Each structure stands twice: as structure tokens, then as C-alpha cells.
Amino acid sequence: MSKQPTIGFIGAGNMASAIIGGMLAERFKPEQIWASAPDDRQLQSLAKRFGINTTTDNRHCATQADVLVLAVKPQVMQEACSTIHSVVQNTRPLIVSIAAGLDAATLESWLGGELPIVRCMPNTPALVGQGASALYATPAVSAPQRQLAEQIFASVGLAVWLDEESQMHAVTALSGSGPAYCFLFLEALEDAARNAGLDAAVARQLAIQTLAGAAKMARDSGDDPATLKRNVMSPGGTTEKAIETFETADFSGIVASAYEAARTRSGELAEQLRKSAD
Ligand SMILES: NC(=O)C1=CN([C@@H]2O[C@H](COP(=O)(O)OP(=O)(O)OC[C@H]3O[C@@H](n4cnc5c(N)ncnc54)[C@H](O)[C@@H]3O)[C@@H](O)[C@H]2O)C=CC1
Ligand SMILES: O=C(O)[C@@H]1CCC=N1
């Protein structure tokens, strides 16, 4: 790829626009990016916001692309793949799928064989440049293609590689779904403070900054979470009482069960999609 590679997006929703926004803030140029979706209004808004190329024709988007990011819902992926099958068999771009619970083998069976495929599980904080993405490359992916895939997702936050595709289920339940767990905790904390009489806006501001500050400390201090937790707990103080309450209600057990439910669901989705490909 001596010229600047062209990146095509099939699907122009939340995740595609988050990733495109991040790419443009880094080294990518609007003229390098194409997006296609059935909804012309959605495309016009992306074109206006980012100055990228758009089309309602998936085939046209795929024809331009050195890298084709598949950013549609898993349930419509098979149909989207059928529209670009003959193009990708001809041009053989790097395929990057961000769909939850969709195996590379299933995707390959929908697109035709022997394509270089990267699977990625991003998350919604990519919208604010604070995403966490895990990537897995099939053996057909070359080193420069791997590097390019990493550049795309590193432009919206952290990007890490997995050695085994099967680890995607564990990642989906951690960082893919994880932002929702954090928002649930945030909601609960805010509600409790409001019920205690705190002004709603103040409760929200303090709760958000507390989560953001704690996350930054966990990332930057070099201390493990157990040490950081102990540092907040004065003997005989308030935090000790709260942590005791969490432990009595088996907070860790609840988190583990919720995590397992998401991981199991990711496996079920993969199985359903695999069966629909047979
Ligand atoms: N939302 C999340 O937290 C995460 C989502 N994902 C994955 O990202 C993918 C996209 O999700 P979102 O952006 O949230 O969905 P979304 O609903 O916001 O966007 C989907 C896009 O696909 C377009 N589309 C529908 N049918 C199409 C077709 N046949 N051809 C081309 N485009 C078509 C829609 O018009 C829309 O632009 C999904 O596969 C999801 O599993 C991955 C990680 C996190
Ligand atoms: O809930 C879902 O299925 C997708 C995958 C990870 C986040 N959202």
C-alpha cells in the first residue's frame, strides 16, 4: 500500500462515527474515508460533520477500500456481506469486523474464502477518544495490515491484541459491555446521594468525577486496586462500613455472575450466527 490506504465503513451508526471521528483527529484524512449505509440522512450528517465520502451503495464503498470495516449489527451482517461478496473476492481488502459474537470463520463463509480478517471488540467510550479495543488477526493478515488495523483503533483509545479468537467472548463481557456496568454503578451512586437530600446536579458532578478520578488513579498510580481501596479506608471510618455492606451483599459475586451472563451470551450469539451460516 504505497498510496494512503482507503478505509471503507459498511454501516454508519454510533461505532462507525466514533471511530471515524478518532481517525480524523489522528493521522487519517477525510478523503481516505468512505462510509455506506441505507440511511441517506445519516450519511449526509456524517459527510457534513467529517467531510468524508459517503454512498448508499455498499458495493461502491467496498470497491474503494483497502480496509473494509464492517460496522453493522450482527443480525444484518449476513445481508450486508451478500452485497459486497463479489467485490471483496475481486479486490481482497483487509476485512475488520466489530460485530459482537461473530466468528471470523462465519464471516469468511459469508464473504467467500481466504480473506485477511481482523476481529475487533471496541466500546462506546471510543466516542470520546477513551475506547478500549481488543483485536484478533487471522493468519492471512499481513504485518502492515495488522499495523494499520491497530492505528485505526489506537486513534480512539487503547488497542490490545489477543492471541486466541476464543478470548473475544471474555473481552466482550469485560470492555465491550463494561461501560454499561460503570453507568449502572454511577446511576446507583447518584440515586443514593439524591435520596440523602443532595442536589441532583451536584450528586451527578461528584459521582462522575469520583469514577473518573478513581479510574485515572488506577491507571496512573501503579498501585493495584486492593491497595487503592485500602488507602481510602480509615480504620473505624465511613468507607469500611460501606465496603462491609458491599461484601455482605456479595458484590464481587454479583459482578462475577453478571460478567458470566454476558460472556455466555456472546458464545450463544456466535453459535446462532454460525448455525445461520450452515
Ligand atoms: N454499541 C456498542 O457498545 C458496541 C457495538 N459493537 C458492534 O458494533 C456494530 C455496530 O453497532 P452500532 O454502531 O452501535 O449500531 P448502529 O445501529 O448505531 O449502526 C448500524 C449501522 O448499520 C447501518 N446498516 C443497517 N443495515 C445495513 C446494510 N445492509 N448495509 C450497510 N449498512 C447497514 C445502519 O443504517 C447504521 O448506520 C455491531 O455489530 C455491534 O455488535 C461493538 C462493540 C460495542
Ligand atoms: O450488548 C451488545 O451485544 C454489544 C456488544 C458489546 C457492547 N454492546
Q: Give the ligands present.
A: 1,4-dihydronicotinamide adenine dinucleotide, (2S)-3,4-dihydro-2H-pyrrole-2-carboxylic acid
- Taken as a percent bin, the fraction of beta residues is 5-15%
- Total count of helical runs of at least 4 residues: 12
CATH third-level topology of the largest domain: Rossmann fold
Could you tell me the mean pLDDT? 95
In which order are the strands of the major sheet placed? 3-2-1-4-5-6-7-8
Structural class: alpha/beta
Rg measurement, Å: 21 Å
Shape: elongated
Within CATH, the superfamily of the largest domain carries the name: NAD(P)-binding Rossmann-like Domain
Number of strands: 8
Provide the succession of SSEs.
Answer: EHEHEHEHEHEEHEHHHHHH
Point out poorly predicted stretches: none
CATH architecture of the largest domain: 3-Layer(aba) Sandwich
Oligomer description: single chain
- What is the distance, rounded to the nearest whole angstrom, between the alpha carbons of the first and last residues? 35 Å
The level 1 CATH classification of the largest domain is Alpha Beta
Query: Approximately how much helix is present in the residues?
Result: 55-70%
Main beta sheet, described?
8 strands, mixed
